[in-house]
Write a structure and sequence with these properties.
The protein is of the alpha+beta class. It has helices at 20-24, 49-53, 79-88, 102-112, 132-151, 159-175, 199-216, 225-233, 236-240; strands spanning 9-10, 30-33, 35-38, 59-60, 125-129, 186-193, 220-223, 247-256. The strands form three sheets. It has a four-stranded antiparallel β-sheet, with helices on both faces. Strands 1-4 form a two-stranded antiparallel sheet. The chain has a two-stranded antiparallel ribbon with strand order 2-3. It binds flavin mononucleotide (FMN).
């Protein structure tokens, strides 16, 4: 069975007519008439649940073959492993002077691209600095821009922003200590079209997903609020980085191989919980 736009196909040799694809379709565009029938005009949002849920690999959609998907059953990390990753992850502010391979960065971004997006929009843009030389040039550029602002009095001297921005420029000028990027060799920024259904959420979820897979590989990351502040003072930087004007910048994160090892978890204050009765 083939339809033009979504290319929904059922291999009738493999299909056992269990109805899982119809039952699981969030848009309700599949019904069973013996074999599954797809409603081309029903508002499919391309989530591929029909392909993923089929126990016999009989369903294909959007030209995707089930055999090209990764098997899932029994492959997830254990709760103990996930807990160790979540509790053991630390913000890394000391990095080895070593580039993360382009192949690994691409692998991490591929995984991060699997993060969920509202209405399955899948339009998060990952703006990444892959090369140390590019990062060094950007570092220099950002401090020059901030330095000019500081010298012209355009950076406030007081308050949190003044402390961070002005202090960062001072540290860089006097000691070549990089507070803005924590000396990291790589930068990742997520953005999404402002017109997308959930750009703020999608960009943060994508970055969180990147963070977790990066740490699972032994890499370090830190959410970069100071660079976000710098972007606020130098909005032209977004264009310099190739981020489209109609995009909402979600957040920035630096990453690289850590030059620090943590031997135990920290002890957070207990989660604040409001139980609805
Ligand atoms: C939204 C956000 C922005 C942050 N910005 C910075 C930053 O600019 N520089 C920095 O060194 N750490 C930054 N951090 C890291 C926090 O300081 C850190 O997560 C917190 O102190 C807890 O430490 P941990 O991440 O090691 O558990 C940021 C964290 C978040 C969530």
């Amino acid at each position: 069975m083939e339809k033009s736009m979504y290319n929904f196909r059922v291999d009738e040799e493999l299909c056992v007519q269990c109805g899982e694809c119809a039952a699981d379709c969030p848009a309700g565009v599949i019904h069973m008439d013996g074999f599954p029938v797809f409603d081309e005009d029903g508002g499919c949002y391309r989530c591929q649940h029909c392909l993923a849920v089929c126990p016999t690999g009989a369903v294909s959609i959007l030209g995707k073959k089930p055999e090209d998907s990764q098997a899932v059953v029994g492959t997830f990390p254990t709760p103990a492993q996930m807990t160790a990753l979540i509790k053991g992850r630390r913000s890394i502010r000391r990095y080895r002077n070593e580039e993360v391979s382009a192949a690994l960065i691409e692998e991490l971004l591929d995984v991060a691209g699997h993060a969920p997006t509202g209405v399955n929009a899948q339009d998060v843009l990952f703006t990444v600095v892959k090369e140390c030389s590019v990062m060094d040039a950007l570092r220099q550029d950002v401090y020059e821009r901030l330095g000019k602002l500081k010298d012209s009095g355009a950076l406030p001297d007081e308050g949190m922003v003044g402390r961070y921005m002005g202090g960062a420029v001072k540290k860089w000028r006097e000691e070549k200590i990089d507070i803005v990027f924590r000396g990291a060799p790589h930068l990742l920024i997520t953005s999404a079209p402002k017109a997308s259904p959930c750009p703020a959420q999608d960009t943060l979820i994508a970055l969180t997903t990147f963070q977790m897979i990066a740490h699972a590989h032994g890499l370090g990351t830190v959410w970069d609020g100071i660079f976000m502040m710098a972007l606020g003072f130098c909005p032209e930087l977004a264009g310099r980085l190739g981020i489209p004007e109609q995009h909402l910048v979600g957040y920035a994160m630096v990453f690289g191989w850590p030059a620090v090892e943590y031997h135990r978890t920290v002890q957070r204050t207990p989660a604040q919980i409001n139980v609805v009765r």
